[in-house]
Amino acid sequence: MQILRQLKIGARLALGFGTVLLLLLVLGVFGIVQLRNINYHANELGTNWLPSVRAVGDIRAIMNDGRRASLRRILETTSEGRQLQLERIKLALETKLPPALAAYEQKISSPEEKQLYDTFRGRLDAYRALESKVITLSDAGEGSMAEARALATGTSAKAFTDLTEMLAQLVKINEDGGASAAAAASAGYERALVVFIAVIAVSLLSGLALAVAVTRSITQPLETGVAVATAVAQGDLTSTFDIHGKDEPAALLHALQHMNGQLVNMVGQVRNGSENIATGAAEIAMGNADLSQRTEQQASSLEETAASMEELSSTVKTNSDTAREANQLAARAAQAAEQGGTIVGRVVDTMQEIAASSDKISDIIGVIDSIAFQTNILALNAAVEAARAGEQGRGFAVVASEVRTLAQRSAQAAKEIKALITDSVDKVSNGSQLAGSAGQSMEGIVAQVRQVSTLISEIANASAEQSSGIGQVGEAVNHLDQVTQQNAALVEQSAAAAASLRSQSEQLSALVAVFRLERSAEAAPAPAMAPARLAASPRPAPLAHGRGHRHALSAA
């Protein structure tokens, strides 16, 4: 049992199942070997011994047929009868006997049988020689028939009897071999049956023993663990037990032992600390009462400061709104001046474009004048050619005259238009100069308006920032007031929580008293609570400082 407890549960189960499987394997291998032996003897009986007996019987029957035919032949009185019996002798000894002998030779399986068969073959050859002599004497005539009959019933008969006895011995050898094979098969069966029963019994006993051992090695530590857990659940932390082995239940018991020790330490500390908690809760309640009174005074002073900040914020906001309106008016004036400057700039650009267009028109009129001059020259050339043509060119001369007249009129109109355009260009140039002067004046006005707008905007921004800063201060004061009121509420809640903590610590002491501990654990000191109380006692000092600072603000 102790050896099993040194193994893991998986190793134990593997050992148990492995042992059973090994026994099953041994049983299976042994069964296969025994079945193979039984099958060998059964095959030998069916394929060797019994066929050998059958083959010897066939040889005996064939020889008997030949012997009967030989005896009948010497008794026949007619040549036809003797010939018929001779054919039967040849059929038996020459046709049927050799295949039967060959079939038997394949079944010979022992030296004794082989030796006896060789002797049989020698005597068989001698017998066949005697039979041949009997046949020869019987065919020689009536004078030799008596000698043939004497040979057939004497020496030949004795030789046949010896052969028959040898065949009986061969049958006996094969029958004994068959009986031995049957006995060996029966013995193998009985031996296999005994071994099977023994192995099955050993397997059952081994499996039962391993099952009991493995089960007890697992259940006993678990029962110990259940007992310890039950004792802990009932408040008994004084349980002691021994642990053996290195398996999972042993690890569980180690964990339970460690847990029990930790619970002993923890319960002892909780029991000792619950009293300190109750004392500390009472001191916290007293400190919270003082803190609540100081917090209420601080909240009252903050409310007065918040009201003053609201009045100051309202005044600054009014100044900021006025500066914002002035900034908007200045921005509108600057925008109007910028729009006027933009319009004047557009007028100047338009006048310049008109002047450029007038220059282009003047160039075009020059081109028209040149075209009219060239047309006039062409008309003169056409009139000269028409005069040379005589009567045939009269119509062409009239057309050339009209073209010349039109060219002169076009040239005159172009001169007049050019004069008008030149005058217009001069006037547009003067207007462009005046518009440029007006644009420069507007740019100066716009720059001054922008400066005024910038100054007013800076004033408005400063007022807005001042209003925003005062608003933030007011919000901070309001937030501080809210926080102070929340602190007051929290102080009240803390006082209630301290009272509840004291009640719960008393209940905790009552609950912890249920556990039974050793005296050494009960005497163990709990973590000190005094430093926490000492650290908490100076907290009202900042409130007093804040209250003095608040009075200073009110006086200011």
Characterization of this structure:
The structure is a single chain. With 556 residues, this protein is mainly alpha-helical. The chain folds into two domains: 2-225; 259-551, Orthogonal Bundle (Helix Hairpins), CATH 1.10.287. It is built from eleven helices and no strands. The chain has helices at residues 2-5, 9-75, 79-105, 111-140, 142-153, 155-233, 248-389, 394-512, 519-522, 530-536, 540-555. Helix 2 (9-75) runs antiparallel to helix 3 (79-105), helix 4 (111-140) packs antiparallel against helix 5 (142-153) and helix 7 packs antiparallel against helix 8. The two termini are 92 Å apart. The model is unreliable at 526-556 (pLDDT under 50).
Low-confidence sequence ranges = 526-556
Major β-sheet profile: none
- Measured distance between first and last alpha carbons: 92 Å
Q: Indicate the CATH topology of the largest domain.
A: Helix Hairpins
What is the CATH C-level name of the largest domain? Mainly Alpha
